[in-house]
Write a structure and sequence with these properties.
Strand order of the largest sheet: 1-2-3-4-5-6-7-8
Order of helices and strands: HEHEHHEHEHEHHEHEEHH
Structural class: alpha/beta
Helix content: 40-55%
Shape: globular
Largest sheet: 8 strands, parallel, barrel
Radius of gyration: 20 Å
Number of helices: 11
Length: 271
């Protein structure tokens, strides 16, 4: 049995990297969509703090709370049978201290029943990463464009394009691996840099806007399905345009209701 035929775990993800099997990851925020993605064979379901933008309608990921992340993660974990479920630690739920990080991650593990947590940052968060790993909580890192720091960046442009920034990102990736992280998301960094990180660290890299040489790829599902239309990142390939389909279906329903065509006799009860 190969790693992709059984329940996905941190060990299965490590085996997939070693075997050169690409890891498939998507975001999920509710039971219905998570069930469909799980049945489609997605390896990792990330309950991302992107729920703030694509579900809650916020401009950034910063406003989403830990309580809200626990709620959405619980729905996704309830649906997943094969996929490995990772929950995002939201802004200021882990940056203050390692003990805060442990309490926040503990809630996602215990209350939502995720199988791992994700946090943003490099060497600045390695103490928190090590603390969580010591407590038995798997940690996924996140480097490059880290959305919780968008106000510090001031732009969504590609990160680590210069030699100094690239060297720092490489050092951060190695520090996260040394601290015990089981995987790292690389967001919006040059493809050559992502390839070098993937070669240098022993843990899987999951790319989003980071080229094809990462060990796996992730997209925000609402981008992938064409549901989120506020903006379209260059790296977000749309496999469907469901926003149009939904509008068309709702409009057709409206025409049927207003024209007396719905419900039909077959859709009604009684004589």
């Amino acid at each position: 049995m190969s790693a992709v035929d059984r329940k996905i775990t941190t060990e299965a993800l490590r085996q997939m990297k070693q075997a050169g099997q690409r890891i498939v990851a998507l975001t999920a925020y509710d039971w219905t969509l998570a069930r469909l993605l799980d049945e489609a064979g997605v390896d990792v379901l990330l309950v991302g703090d992107s729920v703030a933008t694509v579900v809650q309608g916020e401009d950034t990921t910063i406003p989403v709370t830990l309580d809200e992340m626990v709620y959405h993660a619980r729905l996704v974990a309830r649906a997943a049978r094969r996929a490995f479920v990772v929950g995002d630690l939201p802004f200021l739920s882990y940056q203050i201290s390692a003990e805060d990080a442990l309490r926040s991650a503990g809630r996602l593990m215990k209350e939502a029943r995720v199988e791992a947590v994700k946090l943003e940052g490099g060497r600045a968060v390695v103490e928190a990463v090590a603390r969580l790993v010591t407590a038995g909580i798997p940690v996924m890192g996140h480097l490059g464009l880290t959305p919780q720091s968008i106000h510090a960046f001031g732009t969504y442009r590609v990160r680590a394009t210069g030699a100094d920034d690239a060297a720092q990102l490489l050092a951060d990736a190695e520090a996260l691996a040394d601290a015990g992280a089981f995987a790292i998301v690389l967001e919006k960094v040059p493809a050559t840099l992502a390839a070098e990180v993937t070669r240098r660290v022993p843990i899987p890299t999951i790319g989003i806007g980071a080229g094809k040489h990462c060990d796996g790829q992730i997209l925000v599902t609402h981008d992938m399905l064409g549901l989120f239309e506020r903006f379209k990142p260059r790296f977000a390939r749309r496999y469907r345009e469901l926003a149009k389909e939904i509008r068309d279906a709702a409009a057709e329903f409206g025409l049927d209701v207003r024209g007396g065509e719905f419900p039909s006799a077959d859709e009604s009860y009684g004589p």
